[in-house]
């Protein structure tokens, strides 16, 4: 009798196992990503060790972290996997809980694990309604990072230089960087794309057992959000894009088309610095300040500027430092640039020039292997999205045509990059044919993502609304510009889910 019972139990067990196997097979056929969508999310403390400052801050705030498994290649979900690191600051107002708010800080290749900490501050009580989700995009930060082993010359954005000899050096650098990446990580390069990051976002949504994501993305993060809406229609709830980038303006330097805005920002800063000639000594008029900048650029073209005992700043990287200081018209940021230009002027006169701690950190990132990972990641994403083969001569001709009108920004925005020597993208760039009810936030003088891009997205998405900061030369507004007008209107939307009845304008 016991034997019969055992046989019957074994038969029943085999039937159940077969049914489960059939169900699993059917589920996999219906959803090839079922094992990723249904994965168990293991939350753990964020600190990876005693010296992990970010992890300690996240833990102190009550956040937790997890590693989400995603396919390396979404066309082969049964193949190799990678992990995407996320952080979470849970909603505390469960009576009014909206759901997850995924955060992206831009870049490309901007780590965003920290963002629940920074955005909860500007959101105030609205943050209590959301699970704030920070994400390091694939191959960035803690997400199976990519590093091509670049060393000197790894600045992700470089200028063409003053003459054809200097430009030929740029061709050599760009070709070398592309080859280094292909040799070091050619196995993953085809999958380092915005479209795959958007697919990762949807795996995160499903793994969190949510029907939709709310989203806040800055700069490149706005483009990533746009890609997500195209690939996964109907899966977004409340959506805020700040520093809006239209897919039509997304290009291999990210500055092409923004030359005029950057030159205008330079002139505006020069007027600001001239009014403070007593503090900085850069010139008593705008023309004199611009002449100081021109003197610095000319000196770097003749011989690299020595900064401290460590750094040599040449004509290819110096414009990146200057343009980098033009992303904001806040007094504090303008003062930082003025202090940097004052130091560079000393270096241009071949006098001792000791960098501030902030400038030393910037130069270390731009000129040494310390910036290799970030530069590799940014380049890989852009080249994976929009690589183009134009021929090395075309860039120089475009640089020359641009230089007369835009002497600082033109040779930077039109220069050759490693994308010229990259393998062809696996997918075509994303084109939008949808309409999404999003809140678009933009400054009229944004020198990074043009206001025209925000207007283009407003036209593309008739259901959206445009919140404009008029008169500001600022990249990134919500929680970053100190504008109550902007912050309160974004918070009102995040609180209620109701877009304004019409487009709104705030004054700088």
Task: Write a concise synopsis of the structure shown.
With 508 residues, the chain is α/β, with parallel strands linked by helices.
Instruction: Calculate the mean pLDDT score and round it.
Output: 93
Radius of gyration: 25 Å
What characteristic shape results from the CA principal axes? globular
- Give the strand line-up of the largest sheet: 1-2-4-3-5-6-9-10-11
Query: Based on DSSP secondary structure assignment, what is the total number of beta strands?
Result: 11
CATH topology of the largest domain: Rossmann fold
Number of domains: 3
Look at the structure and give the CATH class of the largest domain.
Alpha Beta
Query: Beta fraction of the residues?
Result: 5-15%
Range of helix content: 40-55%
CATH architecture of the largest domain: 3-Layer(aba) Sandwich
Can you tell me the CATH superfamily of the largest domain? Alpha/Beta hydrolase fold, catalytic domain
């Amino acid at each position: 009798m016991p034997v019969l019972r055992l046989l019957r139990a074994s038969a029943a067990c085999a039937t159940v196992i077969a049914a489960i196997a059939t169900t699993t097979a059917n589920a996999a056929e219906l959803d090839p990503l079922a094992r990723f969508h249904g994965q168990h999310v293991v939350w753990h403390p964020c600190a990876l060790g005693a010296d992990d400052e970010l992890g300690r801050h996240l833990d102190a705030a009550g956040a937790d972290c997890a590693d989400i498994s995603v396919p390396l290649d979404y066309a082969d979900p049964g193949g190799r996997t990678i992990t995407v690191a996320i952080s979470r600051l849970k909603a505390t107002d469960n009576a009014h809980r909206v759901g997850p708010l995924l955060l992206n800080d831009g870049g490309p290749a901007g780590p965003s694990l920290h963002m629940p900490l920074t955005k909860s501050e500007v959101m105030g009580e609205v943050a209590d309604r959301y699970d704030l989700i920070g994400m390091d995009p694939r191959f960035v930060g803690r997400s199976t990072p990519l590093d091509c082993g670049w060393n000197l010359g790894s600045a992700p954005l470089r200028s063409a230089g003053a003459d054809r000899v200097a430009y030929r050096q740029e061709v050599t650098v760009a070709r070398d960087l592309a080859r280094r990446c292909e040799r070091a990580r050619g196995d993953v390069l085809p999958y380092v794309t915005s479209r795959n990051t958007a697919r990762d976002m949807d795996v995160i949504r499903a793994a969190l057992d949510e029907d939709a994501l709310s989203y806040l993305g800055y700069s490149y993060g706005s483009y990533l959000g746009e890609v997500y809406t195209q690939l996964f229609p109907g899966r977004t709830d409340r959506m805020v894009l700040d520093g809006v980038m239209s897919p039509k303006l997304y290009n291999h330097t990210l500055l092409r088309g923004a030359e005029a805005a950057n030159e205008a920002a330079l002139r505006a800063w020069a007027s600001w610095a001239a009014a403070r000639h007593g503090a900085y000594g850069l010139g008593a008029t705008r023309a004199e300040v611009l002449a100081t900048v021109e003197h610095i650029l000319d000196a770097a073209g003749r011989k690299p500027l020595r900064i401290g005992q460590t750094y040599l700043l040449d004509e290819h990287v110096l414009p990146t430092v200057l343009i980098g200081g033009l992303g904001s018209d806040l007094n504090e940021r303008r003062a930082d640039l003025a202090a940097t230009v004052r130091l560079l002027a000393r270096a241009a006169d071949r006098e001792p020039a000791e960098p501030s701690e902030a400038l030393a950190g910037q130069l270390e990132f731009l000129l040494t292997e310390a910036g290799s990972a970030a530069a590799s990641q940014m380049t890989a994403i852009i080249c994976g999205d929009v690589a183009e083969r134009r021929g090395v001569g075309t860039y120089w001709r475009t640089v020359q045509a641009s230089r007369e009108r835009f002497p600082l920004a033109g040779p930077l925005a039109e220069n050759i990059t490693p994308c010229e020597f990259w393998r062809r993208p696996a997918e075509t760039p994303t084109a939008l044919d949808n309409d999404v009810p999003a809140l678009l936030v933009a400054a009229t003088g944004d020198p990074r993502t043009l206001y025209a891009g925000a207007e283009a997205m407003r036209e593309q998405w008739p259901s959206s609304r445009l919140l404009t900061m008029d008169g500001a030369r600022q990249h990134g507004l919500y929680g970053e510009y100190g504008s109550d007008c902007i912050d309160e209107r974004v918070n009102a939307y995040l609180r209620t889910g109701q877009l304004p009845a019409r487009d709104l304008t705030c004054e700088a």
